[in-house]
């Protein structure tokens, strides 16, 4: 497991752990990031599921606290989107901000992406394509 550090709504630093689960034969392009509290309770997690579109892009499909209050308002969604870009080495796009063939960005996820654009200069709203994007950037230290 890897560590995920966030800042909650009150400005407190929070520590979590996460794992990455890759797709199977039925869903080879699916990747899920699961975030757990420390100490870990394997029955409680936050998850962010993505679909690999191509060599440059992954699309966020679903994020949920799984009805676990300890993951709410902890800053997890913004950090896990950034981790997804880093670990998958791809740009991350949201669902469309306006409905397209039954695919659309729900209100809470829209709010997550708005916060991310305020916190990260690599995140923006692509108004032409009606979706948010976090650009993956290779950083050489």
Structure description:
- This protein has 141 residues and is of the alpha+beta class.
- The chain contains two helices and eight strands.
- It has an eight-stranded mixed sheet with strand order 1-2-3-4-5-6-8-7, covered by helices on one side.
- Helix 1 links the parallel strand 5 and strand 6.
- The model has no long low-confidence stretch (mean pLDDT 94).
Features:
2 helices; alpha+beta; 141 residues; Aminopeptidase; 8-stranded mixed sheet; single chain
Map the helices and strands.
Blueprint (H helix, E strand, L loop, with lengths): L1 E6 L5 E10 L7 E7 L9 E7 L4 E8 L11 H13 L2 E3 L13 H13 L3 E4 L4 E4 L7
Parallel strand pairs: 5-6
Antiparallel strand pairs: 1-2, 2-3, 3-4, 4-5, 6-8, 7-8
Give me a quick take on this structure.
This protein has 141 residues and is α+β, with helices and mostly antiparallel strands. The chain contains 2 helices and 8 strands; from the N terminus they run βββββαβαββ.
């Amino acid at each position: 497991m890897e560590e995920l550090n966030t800042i909650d709504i009150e400005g407190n630093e929070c520590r979590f752990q996460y794992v990455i689960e890759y797709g199977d034969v039925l869903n080879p392009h699916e990747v899920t990031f699961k975030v757990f509290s420390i100490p870990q309770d394997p029955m409680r997690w936050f998850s962010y599921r993505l679909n690999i579109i191509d060599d440059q892009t992954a699309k966020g499909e679903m994020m949920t606290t799984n009805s676990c209050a300890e993951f709410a308002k902890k800053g997890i969604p913004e950090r896990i989107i950034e981790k997804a870009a880093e670990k998958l080495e791809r740009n991350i796009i949201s669902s469309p901000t306006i409905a397209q063939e039954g695919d659309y960005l729900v209100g809470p996820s829209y709010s997550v992406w708005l916060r991310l654009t305020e916190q990260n200069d690599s995140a923006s709203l692509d108004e032409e394509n009606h979706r948010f994007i976090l650009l993956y950037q290779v950083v050489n230290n």
